[in-house]
Amino acid sequence: MHQPAxxxxxxxxxxxxxxxxxxxxxxxxxxxxxxxxxxxxTAVLEATGTVLTNKYSEGYAGKRYYEGQQFIDPVExxxxxxxxxxxxxxxxxxxxxSGSPAxxxxxxxxxxxxxxVMGMGLxxxxxxxxxxxxSATGKWFRAVQYGVRKDTGRIDMDEVRDxxxxxxxxxxxxxxxxxxxxxxxxxxxxxxxxVDAVLVADIAHxxxxxxxxxxxxxxxxxxxxxxxxxxxxxxxxxxxxxxxxEHAKALDKAVFPGLQGGPHNHTTAAIAVAxxxxxxPSFRDYAAAVVANAKALAEALAARGFDLVSGGTDxxxxxxxxxxxxxxxxxxxxxxxxxxxxxxxxTVPFDPRKPFDPSGxxxxxxxITTRGLGVDQMPQIAEWMDRTVTAANxxxxxxxxxxAAEVAELLAAYPMxxxx
Length: 420
Ligand code: DSN
Prior knowledge:
Mean pLDDT: 98
Binding site for (6S)-5,6,7,8-tetrahydrofolate: 122, 126-128
Subunit structure: Homodimer.
Structural class: alpha/beta
Main location: cytoplasm
Bound molecules: D-serine
Pfam families: SHMT
EC number: 2.1.2.1
Strand order of the largest sheet: 4-10-9-8-7-5-6
């Protein structure tokens, strides 16, 4: 049963309640390896389901356009102060609805249409909003893109520097969505300084690792930091902008009134809860375990002949080309989902295939680590994945269903917040 229980919903809208119960059960029974997903605590879930969703509060604490902010103001201040303390920054804005709006606010604060901006290309592991051509950020700005080296699968800092010197961007994004290696914030900062650009670190994927001391922090290197709150950070779906004092006002103005209306106060409260959890010593253990699990899983997959981009991982994420196993990313992901192993198909750098039918798989360990799985279980997951791919190649659905039963049996011993 979903936890907290949803008896009122079940009575008022049984059809919807059933769908929610079904999703909770699905999350309980699957090895959830989508690198950007997690399980939030029951406390975070409770905060998102409160009456704070009823309240409008355009503006910022002490300067609102609606009355009745006696409780909303302290909620937002709590979230802001916890974010500042956790990451060690001068300023935090907790209102962006999600990662893409947060990044758009940075553009609005710093640059004008037509200005040159630089980021990592989407096929190399960047994000749409780092200037990719189908995004507003690639259409409205003159975006130049760096990638990774073909031989190492890693960012080539010489290429980044050469591109920056040639193109003189006003803003450089580092970070992305499919980068299995440590981001060298000091090296990016040096390049940004050389060309007089503002360095923006998008740490959406690794924010929990940064907060938990399992990835170097961009603070002191990037003037602006953007992050979602629901990936490794393990909060509700939302985002934050963190910055030095110099950029605080411009970012706040860009979020509201520049881009957004009223903040989602129930989300703000849940962000505050998640930040409180991330400040506890146990969160450091979780962050270290996420990385240890990813390394162990990467090793076990490589030993089974999976072709890992960059040869392994330093963080929570693994990217691999599965075409050497005789299958493309999409059919592999679909077979794995049937086997109870949930991940996403993904392009790999220099992928000859199309994004909707690419060569690779992206997977990560935040959710299974929260669930309590450890390094000892990683070889078993790799074995299931290998067996599933073989079964898919043989068209053997019965073998895949047998794996799903084994997966559910293992997971039954690991409690899940949100399900009881
Ligand atoms: N959807 C996010 C991810 O999965 O990485 C990026 O926006």
